[in-house]
Amino acid sequence: MTIKQQAKELLEQNMGSYISGEEIALALGCSRGAVWKAVKQLQNEGYPISAVTNKGYCLDEKTDRLSKNTIVKLLGESAEGLDIRVFDTIDSTNNYLKELASKGESEGAIAISEQQTGGKGRLGRKFYSPAGSGLYISFLLRPSLAAAEAAKITTMAAVAVAQAIEDSFAVKTDIKWVNDVYINGRKICGILTEAAFDLESGGLDYAVCGIGINVYEPEGGFPDEIKDIAGAVLNEKAGGARNQLSASLISHFLRLYNSGDPAAFYEDYTKRLIWTGEQINVITPKLTRTATMLGVDKDCKLHVRYEDGTEEYIASGEISIRRK
Question: pTM of the prediction?
């Protein structure tokens, strides 16, 4: 760990209080000049650190920078056994945990980043993941599930996101099948679950569930290709909001996951589901068909009735839906 990273952790642990350069230098085993340089780097990266002669350095407790120490503090006892890793930037939190999983990492690792340079969405799409405005988080799981049940992780995650946002900010959320979370008709969250299968047992070896949330609109707005559909949870920045949302999401996600009961989230999923009873386009790589959306079954398969009267239950796979 670099001096900058160690200094950041020490300032986070003392957030809201001044700690002298000498104290930091002693704790890190470096010179005061190295501390000054590290603090300058952090300030240039956007950390609101005050420097006062004869007092030292202080990280503003109202900062909205993601902080492992703050998230752990907010989680309290429920943080025990979790391996939370927070990054300033990463290619993909999913890729990071998949690599750990392939090396035998146990369940409980959680990767969070301020920014992703290679964020991924469903069907090979990119997920826009700029710095300073979103929450990008992935969970490493080793569930006792058959391969066909892997989709339940994604729908469960959508419910956890909705619950965390509503608890943290009292904002009403909706869910678009299968896993997009909406606020006021705009998409504020995408979820991608990637899994490896155990060919011997027919079950999952591991699953990595990645969640990207637009907490704020990014500076300069959303890119042209998504500006008509993308939205944000909050209209303006609020100190500690992303740390609060991180802790709440971790808490809700793990509560639902550890319950081992799909019924624990099915009702919350269906009551938030949009477009039920409306006409939609069911889009596959080969064709698009018009249907009436009837709802979802207990496995969260989409129940539709086509114009010819036939009905079908559809798993997510390579299918997407659009309002007609």
Answer: 0.87
